[in-house]
Amino acid sequence: MTALQNDIFLRALRRQPTEYTPLWLMRQAGRYLPEYNATRARAGSFLGLAKNPAFATEVTLQPLDRFPLDAAILFSDILTVPDAMGLGLSFAQGEGPRFARPLRTEADVARLAAPDMGELQYVFDAVASIRRALVQDGRQRVPLIGFSGSPWTLACYMVEGGGSDDFRLVKGMMYARPDLMHRILEINAQAVSAYLNAQIEAGAQAVMLFDTWGGTLADGMYQRFSLDYMRKVIAGLRREHQGENVPVIVFTKGGGLWLEQLADSGADAIGLDWTVNLAAARRRTGGRVALQGNLDPTVLFADEAGIREQARRVLDDYAAGGGSDGHVFNLGHGISQFTPPESVTVLVDEVHRHSRALRQRDGAQA
């Protein structure tokens, strides 16, 4: 097992003391980087990029070569699992994902089965390749995060056939035929647990569940159709690998209403969108979990002074809840493709600078 040059991200997830607040960005390898766009052009398509371990490794490392980030995240897509189920994933130019065979009827749902993990070997090969590429002078630069979509979020795409403004098809099935929806979610939960376990086996050092569309559900329905199945996924994970604990992060966009319940899900950390105050979130979760977030991604379109001010505000909000440890700085959702890379440089600098200053202040007051 290769030693880490920088393990601050993992220590923060375990709520251990850190010298500064670690930072990574959701969608940090993406279209805002010119080098990513060049690699994607060579790959020929998004799926050509995501399904080629060499290309996936290349783009995963690009933001780390440009910015002093504290974690890498596997370059992949949340829809790899339903794609392996045979639903026929494609990405049209300038459009979002589409499934050729969405789940619309009872017969469609009856045919659904968890995929053979061999269909996803390209993902596990990418994880192993990235881990090797992160080694520098005999030590690994930063930890690697693996991830999956949540069972509910995957189901949204599987039933709708793509993105949606109102989720009327998936919610219609949920309300009219909850038995069909529970079958989809049960299969998804089994598949996601197996998928994340295979990523851990291949070398992922933390894993994250993206519950992107959980926040579209009504209270009560969220617990039954999203949170309960994330709990099943987490319970099914093998969280010890090669003598190391593998932390789990859960992120429900729009999930501020349910922080207390998320903190009891079995996860080590809860991701927060930008609508939640971090000091209040610490009080509500009682220090049971680390917190990740939660800068509004559009802050990165401000000038340098504005970016620095808002970064400090997030850090100060967290520290107001009782010290700075147990926090991973991130955006409240994925970075926009239109973000100037120079803005990310400013953000990373300010987060590292100000979080060090907060610890020095807290140490002087102790």
UniProtKB/TrEMBL annotation:
Location(s), subcellular: Cytoplasm
Main location: cytoplasm
Keywords assigned: Cytoplasm, Decarboxylase, Lyase, Porphyrin biosynthesis
Pathway it works in: Porphyrin-containing compound metabolism; protoporphyrin-IX biosynthesis; coproporphyrinogen-III from 5-aminolevulinate: step 4/4
GO biological process, one term: protoporphyrinogen IX biosynthetic process from glutamate
GO CC annotations, alphabetized: cytosol
Binding locations of substrate: R27, Q28, A29, G30, R31, D77, Y157, T212, H333
CDD domains assigned to the protein according to its UniProt record, in alphabetical order: URO-D
Domain Uroporphyrinogen decarboxylase (URO-D): 22-31, 145-161
Catalytic activity: uroporphyrinogen III + 4 H(+) = coproporphyrinogen III + 4 CO2
E.C. code: 4.1.1.37
A GO molecular-function annotation: uroporphyrinogen decarboxylase activity
Residues annotated as site: Transition state stabilizer: D77
EC main group: lyase
Domain of life: Bacteria
Biological role stated in the UniProt entry: Catalyzes the decarboxylation of four acetate groups of uroporphyrinogen-III to yield coproporphyrinogen-III.
Family according to the record: Belongs to the uroporphyrinogen decarboxylase family.
Subunit structure: Homodimer.
Protein name, entry field: Uroporphyrinogen decarboxylase
Organism: Cupriavidus cauae
Gene it is expressed from: hemE
